[in-house]
Amino acid sequence: MFTRFQFLHDPAGPLQALRGDGWDLRSGPGGAVEGTHPDVPDEAAARERLDDLGLLTSPALRIRFDHSRRPAGG
Asked: What distance in Å separates the CA atoms of residue 15 and residue 4, rounded to the nearest whole number?
């Protein structure tokens, strides 16, 4: 499952937290960043992981869960 992040403020802190947690991030459409994580098979797991990072309800970014796409091998 892909998760799309749109940064509303300085992305340095959230990007560092995501990368440090093992998210594979790449540029997405419209300036967003798309990410996958090897331990995140679905939205519930993504929400739990992002909540643990303090990002799920952060005003610094918008998060969108893309159920229509699956990472390679997933």
From this structure: 12
16-22: which pairs have CB atoms within 8 A and are 24 or more residues apart? 17/53, 17/54, 17/55, 18/53, 18/55, 21/49, 21/53
Domain boundaries, the chain: 2-66
| Class of the domain covering 2-66 | alpha beta
pLDDT in 10s for each residue of the chain, 74 residues: 899 999 998 999 999 999 999 999 999 888 899 999 999 999 999 999 999 999 999 999 999 998 776 655 54
